[in-house]
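Troubleshooting: if your tokenizer reports a length mismatch, compare your output against this known-good record of 372 residues.
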Amino acid sequence: MAASIDSLLPYQPFKAIYVLTVLLYTLARFPLWLLSLLPRSLRQHSSWSLRQAFMVRLVKIFIYHSSRVRSYPAWSLQPGNEKERFERITPSAKDIYRGVLNDKEIKPVEIGGTWFPAVYGPGDMKRKGVILHFHGGAFVEGDGRIQTFGYAANLLTSHTDAWVLSVQYRISSNPGCRFPAALQDVVTAYQSLLDRGIPASFIVVSGDSAGGNMAAGFLRYIEDNPGILPKPRAALLWCPWVYPAIAMKPYSCTGNPRYETDFLNDAFAEWGIKAYAPPPVDPTSSYVSPRDHPFKCEGVPMWIQFGSLEILAADIVKFADGMRSIEGNEVELHEDEDTPHDIFLVGGLLGFQDKAQKMAAAMGAWLKTKLR
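Known-good structure output:
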């Protein structure tokens, strides 16, 4: 019965009725939630402030319900508020979409990207390096633009001397955008930087959550196809979702010991993996779920960050340990104590600004040694 109801929720008028009901119920519960979280001992974690505890709970509820109604941003390549900082990126005519990217149904298309803090200018001697970033959102949410990525972009530009190009890749909630669409877009964006004369030794690939999964997949793609693309200078993986296949199982999040201290939930994770890796895609494959598939990544030092209280923590540690076990790989694993998933992206919203700033400062110090 629940499955049949869920199948109706993305459509009107069921969607509007559901959203209105949830909104009224949530507003009515606000005072009770606040009161229940006043005692520090009753918060998800005793070290959290009232704001942190309340916002993690609120964001969890919002993500759960938006996942049930399949709410996602409409695909658009219009500049919007980004104005001249937004650019359209066309697929390369070069033979760079091979192997796993050479799909019979999914083909490279034009995508978008937003520059931070301004449009790339090679004459700007104050900045050194370009961070090519892929946003999170379980493969079904986000667009990497100012409104959704501005906070994270500011962390990067404040703690490095790099420009940031945040890629608007195809999210799988849109029709015809399953794997390997997003990974094709990663290759398209990377090649566009090379085509404008930016050397690979100047480029750092970066991704948070699902975007971290894509960044890892890109590095694997380069290794699997020697000589197809030059290696980037380094990689930044922020709370990477390295084992989405587990979301195919019921209660993958609610059964996790860190469920109460994170905002991730089953509805969001299940929507993401089923949209990204529907049949005939294998959700356990090395490109979709790299946790158990370490690969050689010599010459590309990797920064991997995670929060100690997030659902993905154990998977991320296992992935990092696997990558470290391969001779020649350089992996820096950074743990942020008492934090939920992806404070890089939503630390400002959740009230973890101080920890996010310290995390970004540690990354900046590490990256500075790699870009010398």
